Amino acid sequence: MRSALVLFLFLVVACPPEKSPNPIANIALPPQPELNAWPIELGDRIRETEDRIRRDEDSVEALISLSGLYHANGFYSEASQCYLGLIQLQPDQPKWPYRLDALPFWEASSQLAPSNEPAFVRLGDAYLKNNDLDKADRAYDTVLSMNPKNPYALMGKGRIAIGQQNWTEAISHLNAAGLHSNSRIGTDLLVSVYEITGESQKAADIRENVTTYGLFFDFDDPWIQEILLDSYDPHQIAVAAGKAKHAENTALAIRLLNRGISVSPKDGHLRLELGMIFVANNQLTEALSQLQECVAVAPKIEEGWSMLSSLYRLRGDAAQADRVLMEGLQHCPDSPGLRLGKARRLNQFGKTKEALAEYEIVFSLYLEEAEPFVEAALLYFQIGQTSEGFRAIEKALEAEPNFPPALVEMTRHKIISKDQEDAARWLSRITHDPGINPNMIQEMQQLFKKTFNSRPPNQ
Amino acid sequence: MRAPVHAEAVDFDEDGDLDILVASMSIVYPNPNKIGTIFLLENRGDQTFHKRVLAENIDRVNDVRAADFNNDGRMDLAIAQFGYDQGQVAWMEGLGNWEFATHTLLNLSGSINVCLSDFDGNGTTDIAALFSQQWEEIHLFLNDGEGNFEDTILFGSTNEDFASSGMRIADLNQDGRPDLLFTNGDGFGPAAYPGPRPWHGVQWLENLGNAEFQFHRIGYLPGAYSPIDIDLDNDGHRDVLALSCFNNWYDDNAVSMVWFRNTGNEQFFEPRTLAHKPTHLLSIAVADFEGIGDLQLVTGAFHAWPPYENLSSITYWKLYPENHE
Fold first, then answer.
1. Is B33–A218 a contact, with Cβ atoms under 8 angstroms apart?
2. Could you tell me if B199 lies within 8 Å of chain A, comparing CB atoms?
3. Is pTM, for the whole model, over 0.90?
4. Is the interface score ipTM higher than 0.95?
5. Looking at the complex, does the CB of residue B248 fall below 8 Å from at least one CB of chain A?
6. Last residue of a domain, one of A92, A110, A128
7. Could you tell me if residue A151 is inside a domain?
8. Buried (b) or exposed (e) across A265-298, using 16+ Cβ within 10 A?
9. What pLDDT does residue A234 have?
10. A162 chain-B contacts, CB cut-off 8 A
11. Quick check: A263 and A234 in contact, CB under 8 A?
């Protein structure tokens, strides 16, 4: 949202305001946009604030409210006009230029609020993207002088060092960024730097251990996030809640999602997301309520049924968990996740053939993940259908060629089926794979030695 | 061939017929493994093709294009490796006998497209690359003619959810300099589910010469993908078509194809809805497929997110120039 705002600044010049007795209205009141597709309440609030401005009743506060309403709902040209007016009315307030989201305004804001970390990170990023590396470096240094652990500034300095091919400095900054962000910031670049500098084992170690943290998230930005509690756009609110969640600001994420639900009570995705946050927070009663609402208002959202079933199981109510799973399948018969859940339950009940039939339905619906193929393969091997087992493992490796359990099970069952040539080939394949646990490799080597009375390859 | 996401027709072996370069991600959904492949479908001359693997077990590949970057008379490749956590833009120097040496230009994940042209007018082929993920940047790698490239950033958003989705070369103002047309509208990001954002849309970078570019917004299009320039109303001005993949498809008014009509001086592009259905449109090609002097369109859809209604795979669109429908 931030960057988009600046795109519309030019429109401010193109849209002269309606004349009003109050000079603020003439300076800053934008023409009202088309609001037919929006909730009536938003239009009412905009009209009410406009009236206050025109009547000069607490008009600066009204303009602040209006700027937030426009900004939060994606009317960026209108918000820009309000902010430009507010800058004239309150030249010492750093929030207004900050929210205008453009390099000169961030420069102005950071001068007005020299201890506002987010403004300097934004400034550093903007300079970097403007090829002005010296200014970017100084902006990041300012952030680090306030907070030496700021991972975003450290990552910015890491990028600058990469651009200068200063690998030692890049490693230092990126390592620190990862250290202060639970490996979420900068670690992805660190792998590339290690590969460039020939430290392939370090790169492989990070690839193995940290890739699950791959999702970047933006930092907490209170001057922007506070606006969104005035949003009437469920998508926007969901985006803001997602950012807050990833920034581990759970309280704000919950407030935003509740705001979203009040705007759009039948939005099952918002209830699902809120339910998942409550599960992660161990607020299981609140989670149950949201997930029940989710499947009630949006029964076609398969994840709602899946999460609700898992929650009942977590609470020890297996019978209700199974009932929810089956009800979910009635609404979403082609849901691979729910089908997989049923297959796993059938397997737990010892109904192997029925479970395998269900796995085959999963495979007819979804072929992108290796794990279900491996689960089915193990069942096939268990009941002696070896060729079907190998077929399933091959499918697993088609889906994810480096999926460690698939590689290990392929190796194990080639050994068990006494196919020494293939067993040696697969064992050789996994022996130097950094994604496979060394203990597992050792176990396969011992099994190979015991089975064939022969030294394993590459040992 | 699994998850082929870009195909480019080029006479790679320079035998007088068109071969097909294919970028394969192997798996479209997020995956950090080195599972990307570059294929060449080598035209045997009778419209049958021999499949060659030019590179494999590399970070997932989103785009591949061919040119001779170092003027040694051999075709080289420019590649966009989206990867996931790691990725890169690189050029692969053709060494002959189907051997290549890979030269990294920039290690960043999320590269979607590489576009080749002489952007600075020095007579050599340069590379423009669009990066998504959290970077949201367009880089220009200027070629000195010997395969040495200098990197500069042409555009960057500090919004990590800007959602870059595609870039193409166009000469919108017909001044003979290659401009860059690009969209932002990718659906996946920090939100719980994909959908429109107020900042999604279409824009172009006007090439002012000497590797200087100026940003222009063309218009709002939620979930925007695959911008393409075309003179749809035959008025001599280049218009822009773009698709929408990640729109709010529960809303019957959500648009899937928009024509941004160039009103004459590239300062204002009037948006006109061309289609609401089929939905989830991701890819477009335009040509006179029937050889009748009119243009036709082909679109491809990507139904990775509900609702699973109004589905299509490949759709053929005939244009009616009299009423521009």
1. no
2. yes
3. no
4. no
5. yes
6. A110
7. yes
8. eebbbbbbbbbbbbbeeeeeebbbebbbbbbebb
9. 86
10. 107
11. yes
